[in-house]
Amino acid sequence: MSIPLTGGLVSGDVRDGEGKPLAGAHVAIFDRSNKCVARSETDPYGFFAAALMPGAYRIRAEAGGYQSFHERTEIEWGTHSSLGSLTLIPDATLTVPTPGLYEIDPDHSAIRFVARHIAMSRVYGQFMEFVGQIYIGERFEDSQVEVLIDAASVFTNAEKRDAHLRSADFLDVARFPKLHFTSHRFSRPGGNRWLIDGELTLHGMTSDVQLDATYLGMQEWNGMRAGCTATTELHREHFTVNWQQILARGVPVVGSTIQITLDIQGILKS
């Protein structure tokens, strides 16, 4: 980024305690009145830059699972202020849950999905009935999760559409009453982000799935609880859910990819 004619430039890079760049870290810049005047995310090398009017500024860098970092700088006309490396320290409350077996609380958890309809709008739905357990190992890499979902509990707030989703055109719940996810690998790319690799069995077919999860910490409420969110994308053809109608100009009625979002609370049992 070149230095603007009307001000100056500030740049830096965000790293973890081991000196590794933190891609996707959030950087916000505030002026003297504490107004946010610039926001950006770091690139794959942890780098950020912003053009600013001359003056005094406060820079805040944040990333999931790390304590926020604050730095001050002064911007002058026609100059480049390099902050160097901003090192974020891990947040001890967002490392990993207490090792043990957690039972998923269905009353405070949700499995939701989003599908495209005629390439225009989104259809939102969820599965209302499911059970599952999460085992957090003494070595985090030994952790496991298993979830069983009642296929007939699909709900999109439209009775005819829900009946169609339960039919042989889609989930075929009479033949395949359950969706089953089991993990085979847990890993931590950094901070409070987890990657959970596993297999999902749906419509009688099994395919690899990776959950991109964010650990939210632990709280004491009717037991010790751990929380996380997770997302993934499913391709219907991987599970032979191939029903389709094509409108004029080749527009499909239902998109081929389904976005999945999970909000999970687990209660520590042992």
UniProtKB/TrEMBL annotation:
Q: Which residue numbers delimit the Lipid/polyisoprenoid-binding YceI-like domain?
A: 101-267
Q: Which domain of life is it from?
A: Bacteria
| Record-linked SUPFAM superfamilies | Carboxypeptidase regulatory domain-like, YceI-like
Q: Which family does it belong to?
A: Belongs to the UPF0312 family.
**The name this protein goes by in its record:** YceI family protein
